[in-house]
Amino acid sequence: MNILEIKNLYHDFKGLKVLFGIDLAVKAGERHAIIGPNGAGKTTLFNIITGTFRPREGQIFFKGADITGYPPHKLVRFGMGRSFQITSTFSRLTTFQNIRMGILSSQGIRFNMLRMIDRMETVTRATDDMLRRINLDTERNLPASMLSYGKNRSLEISMALATNPELVMLDEPTAGMSVDETHTAVELIRNLTEGKTLVIIEHDMEVVFSLADRITVLHLGAVLASGTPEQIRANQAVKDAYLGNLEV
C-alpha cells in the first residue's frame, strides 16, 4: 500500500520551470531516497509535499487523501514530520525544551494550560526517553546553540520524530557532518524510523545506499529513474547524469 503518491506534478518560479510532470509512489514502511544533481528540483519537491509551496499542477496523496496545498501545521497533525536542509532548532531553548515542543504537539497539547499541567509528567517522561535514545540526556539543560553541529542536527531530526509521524521527511540530514557524525546520524535515523516510512534527500551516496529500500533520481526537474539500490547502481542513464564512476 502506498502511503504517499505524487501525480503529474509541475512547478515553476515566476515562469522558471523547476518540476516537470513528477510521478512518485512511496510504500508504507519503506525508506525512499531522492537523489540528483544540484538544481534537479529535490528540495522544491520536498517543499511542495510538506506544504511550503503549492504546485502549479498535479496532486499529492497521503494515506489516500488529497493533501495538495495543505499547510505544514495541518500536515503535521495528519501524520507527517520533516527536517530542513538548514538546521532549524530553537537555539535559545534547551535540548529538553526543543524535544518537548514536538511531544506536546503530538499529544495535542498546545494552548490549553490546564491540560498541559495535567499531562506534563507524561510529556516529561516521553521527552527524557527521546533524549536518551539520541544520546543527548547529559545535554538536557543546554541551549541548542551550545551543542556541536552534529548534535544539533540530531536534535532537529529527533524534533521531527517527536511528533510521532507516520511519514518522516528528512532534507539533507547529514549535510556538513564529519564522517563520525554521519555514521552516528545514520544509525540514529535507522533506529528512530523503525516501523515508519522515510523519505530522504541526501547527497552522501554511502548514506543513501546504506539506508534506502528504493531510490528515485531527479534530473533537470524530472524523474530519471526509480528503483531498488541495485537497479539504480546498474542504470547507465543515472551513471551518466549523476553517479559517474562513483563506487557505491
pLDDT average, as an integer? 87
Secondary-structure-based class equals: alpha/beta
Beta-strand percent range: 25-35%
Tell me how many strands there are. Answer: 10
- Overall CATH class: Alpha Beta
Largest sheet: 6 strands, mixed
Low-confidence stretches: none
Measure the end-to-end span: 29 Å
Total number of helical segments? Answer: 9
How many domains make up the 3D coordinates? 1
Silhouette: globular
List keywords for this structure.
248 residues; alpha/beta; Rossmann fold; 6-stranded mixed β-sheet; 4-stranded antiparallel β-sheet; 9 helices; 10 strands; 39% helix; 25% strand
Task: Give a verbal description of the structure.
The protein has 248 residues and is α/β, with parallel strands linked by helices. It has a single domain, classed as Rossmann fold (3-Layer(aba) Sandwich), CATH 3.40.50.300. 39% of the residues lie in helices and 25% in strands. It is built from nine helices and ten strands. The chain has helices at residues 42-49, 72-78, 95-106, 113-133, 149-162, 179-192, 205-211, 229-234, 236-243, and strands at 2-13, 16-27, 31-35, 57-62, 65-66, 80-82, 167-171, 197-201, 214-219, 222-227. A six-stranded mixed beta sheet has the order 6-7-8-3-9-10, with helices on both faces.
